[in-house]
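re the bet — no i am not wrong, look at it urself. input seq straight from the record:
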Amino acid sequence: MKVTALLASGALAAAANATIIEARLDSVSPERHMQVSVNGGDSYRTLYTGVNNFTVTGGDTNLLGPTFVGFCIDLGQTIHFNQSNLFTVTQLEDAPLPGSGMGVTKADLLRELWGRHFSPAFTSTQAAAFQSAVWEIVFDSGLNVHTGTIRIDGHDATEDLANDWLDSLTGTSSLYAPVFALTSGQTQDMIVPTPGSVALLALGGLIAGRRRR
C-alpha cells in the first residue's frame, strides 16, 4: 500500500473542501525558455519553463501564506503575469481541469519527483528540468522528454537532467511529498506544496493514528 500518498490525500481531502485561492503570478524565476511540443515533435512553441512565483491576493489567505511557488500541470490553457486568478484546491490525481484528471499513478510519480528533487534553491537548469519532468509525467505515457507525445528541446543540460530525474522514479512511497493542485477553468493549473501548517498537522495526526492502530 502506498501509505504516504494515501495519508497525503486524506489530509488534503479534509483541508481542501472547495477551498478557493486567489493568486497573482508575479514571475517565472529561475527559468529557461524551452521549446515544447505536445504533438510528438510536429511543432514546437517557446514556453517559460521553471518556478512559478505567486502572491496570494484573496480567497483563503491563510492556507498557503502570502506567497507560494508552483509548477504548471496544464498545457491547454495560458496564464498571465500580474493578473489575479481564482483557483480551487484539488487533489492532485483529479487535476488538471477541464478533463478527467491524471489519475493516481501519475500523481504518485509527481509526488516522488517532488520528494526526491524539489529544492527552493534551484538553478535555472534545475528549475527548467523539474518543470520539464512535470509536463512529461502529466501528459505523456513514457518518461523521456525526447520521445513520445511531449518533447522538450532547447538546452541539452536541462533535457539531460530532466531525463535523469525521470529515470530515478522507482515508486518509493516513503519519498512521496504531500503536494496538491490548484485548478481553474480559465487559467493554467499548478502543482504546489501541501497547504500550510494546518494540513501538515492534520497529516501528522493521521500518521500517528495509523501507528497506534
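see?? The helical segments are 3-15, 104-117, 124-139, 156-167, 196-212. told u. also Confidence is low (pLDDT under 50) at residues 1-16, 197-213. so pay up
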